[in-house]
């Protein structure tokens, strides 16, 4: 029996929500009101639930109607009513099948049909947490995306505002001092490994920005065009032929090992011999025939692969991922870190000296940058782009933590009550699936029966 909330409970919840306190007057924790909203039924929800019940009765009534029609049509057919009874019975029978199938599908979303624990049923209550994860991922991909963040920051116009502020000498001095202090603190307090990680990330990001797939594609295209790959193919097929000749027993053992235990040994031996002969024949032909179809297929594959490296987005993305994995290897990162060690002491000394060339150049650069940012739209655009990239990095890096708010909130909802509330909101439309399934099934059954009769005639 479905649970309903009393008017008194609803009134208490509404009062608590209005002043930011719970029912006992305490300030509720964040998300408490959301959970309360999911665990109560509003008058609108109750009206929707009544609409769902009415549509369920309608869909069930239509099922009973076609069942009665089926019984009457079969009875009329046995009484010699004529060919029409067969058509009606076929349509009604298919309508029942369609109605029952769609009833099962709709019911399986919210509960186990007939209370039976059939696998992959009661999807919403059992998969509630997974649905929350999917919803969080959807928000992260569509709302916390690079395009949305960039568009919003671009509308603020940070570059022009920051430029006007930096153009003031006092502000430039202050920023220079703060940057120097921050740099000294980072280099003296942080461990070398931490600073090396930052430097390594900057260098790695620069390397990742250079795409290598198009260049590789052009090189492979030239190799294939010149026939340079054919020598490698010759070596491979020759070695494969020699290996097969010397390792007949190895191939046979592999076939025997993969055969079912119930097959006779002589069958396994015949199959193994056949497999070995076919492999040897294929490799021999490929070795001796420059025009072998497999060689042509390999040429076409390499040509297509060279083209994909230059124009196919998925292929280029996979190559980029492989490149990034290589860049992330410890050996490469150690090489990057060694560069930092040699310049660390020099940077610390320059940052501590107020009259050092480093600090003077930083101050002059800040003043110049501020003047250009306040006047030059191109510079403003560059600064806006840098800030947007930084914001995009933060959003994309910590997207999981941001979207976990959605995931954790959905996970805190009561599964049974959430299922009822979702059914109240979309269940009425889902009942039309049952009705449509009955009608479409009847028409399909009538069509199939008609075609079968015509072909049979």
TrEMBL record:
One GO CC annotation: plasma membrane
One Pfam family of this chain: DUF445
Low complexity bias (residue ranges): 7-17
UniProt keyword terms in alphabetical order: Membrane, Transmembrane, Transmembrane helix
Signal peptide location: none
Biased amino acid composition, Basic and acidic residues: 18-27
Name this polypeptide is given: Membrane protein
Organism name: Streptomyces caelestis
UniProt lineage: Bacteria, Bacillati, Actinomycetota, Actinomycetes, Kitasatosporales
């Amino acid at each position: 029996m479905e649970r309903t909330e009393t008017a008194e409970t609803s009134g208490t919840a509404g009062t608590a929500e209005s002043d930011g306190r719970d029912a006992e007057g305490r300030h509720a924790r964040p998300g408490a009101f959301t959970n309360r909203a999911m665990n109560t039924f509003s008058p609108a929800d109750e009206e929707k639930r009544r609409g769902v019940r009415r549509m369920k009765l309608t869909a069930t009534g239509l099922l009973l109607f076609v069942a009665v029609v089926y019984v009457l049509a079969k009875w009329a057919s046995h009484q010699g009513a004529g060919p029409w009874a067969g058509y009606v019975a076929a349509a009604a029978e298919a309508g029942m099948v369609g109605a029952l199938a769609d009833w099962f599908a709709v019911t399986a979303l919210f509960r186990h049909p007939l209370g039976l624990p059939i696998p992959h049923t009661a999807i919403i209550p059992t998969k509630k947490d997974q649905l929350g994860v999917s919803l969080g991922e959807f928000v992260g991909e569509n709302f916390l995306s690079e395009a949305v963040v960039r568009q919003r920051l671009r509308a603020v116009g940070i570059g022009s505002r920051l430029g006007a502020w930096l153009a003031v000498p006092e502000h430039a001095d202050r920023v220079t001092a703060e940057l120097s202090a921050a740099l000294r603190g980072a280099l003296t307090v942080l461990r070398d490994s931490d600073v090396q990680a930052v430097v390594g990330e900057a260098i790695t990001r620069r390397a990742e920005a250079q795409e290598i797939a198009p260049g590789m594609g052009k090189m492979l295209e030239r190799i294939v065009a010149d026939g340079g790959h054919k020598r490698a193919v010759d070596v491979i097929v020759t070695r494969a032929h020699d290996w097969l000749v010397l390792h007949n027993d190895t191939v046979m053992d592999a076939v025997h090992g993969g055969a079912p235990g119930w097959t006779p040994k002589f069958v396994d031996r015949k199959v193994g011999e056949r497999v070995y002969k076919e492999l040897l024949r294929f490799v021999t032909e490929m070795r001796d025939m420059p025009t072998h179809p497999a060689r042509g297929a390999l040429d076409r594959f390499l040509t297509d692969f060279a083209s994909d490296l230059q124009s196919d987005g998925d292929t280029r993305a996979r190559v980029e991922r492989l490149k990034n994995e290589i860049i992330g290897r410890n050996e490469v990162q150690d090489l990057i870190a060694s560069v930092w060690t040699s310049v660390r002491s020099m940077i610390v000394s320059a940052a501590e000296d107020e009259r050092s060339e480093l600090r003077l150049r930083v101050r002059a650069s800040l003043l110049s940058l501020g003047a250009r940012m306040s006047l030059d739209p191109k510079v403003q655009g560059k600064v806006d782009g840098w800030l947007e990239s930084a914001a995009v990095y933060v959003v994309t890096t910590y997207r999981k933590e941001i979207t976990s708010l959605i995931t954790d909130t959905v996970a805190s909802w009561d599964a049974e009550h959430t299922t009822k509330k979702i059914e109240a909101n979309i269940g009425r439309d889902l009942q039309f699936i049952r009705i449509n399934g009955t009608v479409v099934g009847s028409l399909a059954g009538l069509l199939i029966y008609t075609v079968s009769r015509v072909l049979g005639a």
